Amino acid sequence: MYMCSDKAYLPSQTPEGLAKYRDMELKVLQGDGEGERKWVDRIYDYDVYNDLGAPDHGPEYARTTLGGSKEFPYPRRCRTGRKRNESDKFTEKPVSIPELIYVPRDEIFDHIKTQNFAADSIKAISHLISRTVEYISKGKDQFNTMEEVYSLYVNSSDSESHSMRSDDNHLKRKLTSGIFSLLANGKKTGNPSLLKFPLPLIVQKNKDAWSTDAEFARQTIAGMHPFTIQRVKVFPLESKLDPKVYGPPPSSINSHHIEPYLEGMTVSEALKENRLYVLDYHDAFLPYIQKINALTDRKAYASRSMFLLTKEGTLTPVAIELSLPKGTGREDRVFVPPGNTSEKHQQSLWKLAKIHAILNDTAVHQTYSHFVRTHSSIEPIIIASHRQLSAMHPLMVLLLPHFKDTLNINALARKVLLNAEVKNILRGGIIEYTFSSGRYSLELSSILYKDWRFDEQGLPGDLLKRGMAVRDANAKYGLRLLIEDYPYAVDGLEVWDSIETWVTDFIRIFYIRDEDVIQDKELRTWWKEIREKGHGDKKDEPGWPSMDRIEDLVLVVTTIIWLASAHHAAVNFGQYPFAGFMPYRPTVGRKLIPTPNSPEYESFLKDPDAFLLSSISSPAQTIVGLSIIEVLSTHASNEEYLGQRSDTQWTNNPQVMRAFEKFQEKLFKIGQHIEQRNNDPLLKNRYGEVQVPYTLLLPTSKGGITNMGIPNSTSI
What's the family (predicted)? Predict the structure, then answer.
């Protein structure tokens, strides 16, 4: 049976005739935890990530189970009950094709989403086949010149029509023709969008600005990954790793490295004025560097990148530390900006240092900030919601649009993106193939999840944790940003406030007193299950609101909606606009930075640019990576954005409708405010030298790759 109603009731207020059906529906959705799920089932249950490997193909394809252990904690996924591998009875067999992966029937893509996703996937495959075959046939495993890189893209004269494409209806009409017909037609008609990539925003206006120090720094607060920069509170920086294994805790970056770049300040003065910031991936990566560097054609460091907040309010890099494990310690190299008058090889060494820092950042972006903090963390919340909240519960009415398509896209991700790279990429393993961390990519995300706390997932808690803001009762939203022109945070706090106001207005219609929260049996079981089952590896750790007050409930629901909508929009839809030009954000490092007097250093000195290109993603890796982020960055034609509900009958409560209309009005004004800030010449971090404004948190968008728009849910 299906429970559906345009009226919402707390459990204690359920009409007598509906009460037993309310309980019966939940029992159907919970199932009994036994057997293999069939496509007709509507059952929601939990399991660990034991389906990423394919050990029956060989031991090299076995992958660590994520979740259920202290060593590798992880959120839970939706249980499928598939058969186990013969060689490892604790892991599930992979399915042969993505369409066979179980998701509850109510979670399957609708026909429009299916058509959009298929069209974008076919276009991605057209890139993969046509361009990869071209490079393989020429025997090329590296780019030799920047011109070769640019040859992947529609030329600049066509960029306006193809780079920010909206709905590709021509492609959708060709769906039934098949991929090879599509390729043939692309060649016959001369339509470059079928065989070449659109020119990314990052190089549309200025083809050189992407490589500047100013843009390298600006991207940490106004790019596709503005979530990990943190204020330096102690100098030198210190590691928390075991010093017996990884050497002394203090970083090798010291005052003599950075003080020449501090605008006349000492380090102590810069710390006191909140002027030093860092991207610190040292502790996450160092235990894995030896394993990564033992992989074929993979090389990486553990990095720290330090920045100064200048008098102009912009950031500039002052040092990069790259570390390798060595014996019972480590080997650190510190690079500093060479200045405009330095020799070319010094400039190139600095570029290589920035690239290796970016390689760490891209891995953390994709596997943790993107997948774990949105897709993976939300999945068990969706499962718990269907298992414990009736369809007529007010919270289910509020949250349902923020769950749309997430379980389906996550199931596809486990089959195509996150799984072991078996034989060839057409069978999946794309993250392993296109990232330096290779087979250890998901393990790294588990290590980062160890620091995950629910109360730090909302924007205010996140900013406070990273030291990017301080509490201030006189400041807007009660927080004062220490980098005033922090585009993601400025726009994000306005969006967060609008969500929080809407959630507060909605919840107070149904919950009048704190006692109403305490007495809601479905709510209490829901919250208990999220903590103890969905995020069971974190259940005994701090950060879980007690759920005894309306205030707790507002924080929890606001955080869930924020993660599903705005956080995901900020981390996902800028991928192609910002990372679509591979030399700017490569995902694979293939060579370490050479040391003086080595044969590699002599090769580097002869042609620094060629050495740089040989050090990063190969043509095949580039094409695969671009094909995927082009799909991920694309809005569906029927996308439902924050403040929109496609179901016109979702409520008949006039109080709810008035609150929702107020929410819509606030979102409209937020769009206007963002446009105004982007046109303010005093806000230098919003545009940068690449002339790409920060628009990722504009609430709405058209279809396609637009670098803007906040969908209701984590749907791609």
Answer: Belongs to the lipoxygenase family.
List, for residues 433-470, the tens digit of each pLDDT value.
999 999 999 999 999 999 999 999 999 999 999 999 99
Beta bridge partners of 316: 308
Selected catalytic residue, list 370, 386, 567, 635: 370
Q: How far apart are the C-alpha atoms of 266 and 271, rounded to whole Å? A: 9
Q: Which residue among 116, 408, 410, 572 is the active-site one?
A: 572
| Residue 254 and residue 299 in contact, taking contact as beta carbons nearer than 8 Å | no
401 to 208, 396, 453, 466, 713: CA distances (angstroms): 42, 9, 24, 30, 7
- 191 has pLDDT over 70: no
Pair 686, 693: CB distance under 8 Å: yes
Q: Is 568 a catalytic residue?
A: yes
Domain 453-572+645-699 sits in CATH at: 1.20.245.10
What is the predicted pLDDT for the residue at 190? Answer: 46
CA 169, CA 120: separation in Å to the nearest integer? 11
Of 365, 386, 567, 568, the catalytic one is 568
Cβ atoms of residues 558 and 458 within 8 Å: yes
Residue with tokens 């250093």: 601
**Domain 230-337, CATH:** 3.10.450.60
Where do you find CATH 3.10.450.60 in the chain? Answer: 230-337
User: Does residue 572 have an active-site annotation?
Assistant: yes
Identity of residue 82: R
Distance CA 281, CA 357 (A): 9
Structure tokens at 317: 């890099």
Torsion angle, CA of 201/206/207/211, rounded to 10 degrees? -90
pTM here is 0.93
Which structure tokens are listed for 377?
A: 């963390």
Mean local confidence (pLDDT), 675-682: 97
Residue 637 structure tokens: 């034609």
Q: What is the largest CA-CA distance in the chain?
A: 84
Which residues, 6+ apart, have CB-to-CB distance to 531 below 8 Å? 538, 539, 544
In the chain, what percentage of residues exceed pLDDT 70? 89
Segments of the chain assigned to CATH 1.20.245.10: 453-572+645-699
What is d(CA 149, CA 553) in angstroms, rounded to the nearest whole number? 50
Q: Is 716 in the active site?
A: yes
Q: In whole angstroms, what is the distance from residue 2 CA to residue 123 CA?
A: 37
Residues 528-531: contacts with CB under 8 Å, at least 24 apart: 529/384, 529/387, 529/388, 530/380, 530/381, 530/384
- Residue 98's pLDDT band, with cuts at 50, 70 and 90, is low
* Pick from 190, 204, 160, 198: nearest CA to 634: 198
Mean pLDDT in residue range 561-578: 98
Residue 77 · residue 109 · CB < 8 Å: no
R_g over Cα of the chain? 25
**CA–CA separation, 531 vs 521, rounded Å?**
16
SS (H, E, C) 96-111: CCHHHCCCCHHHCCCH
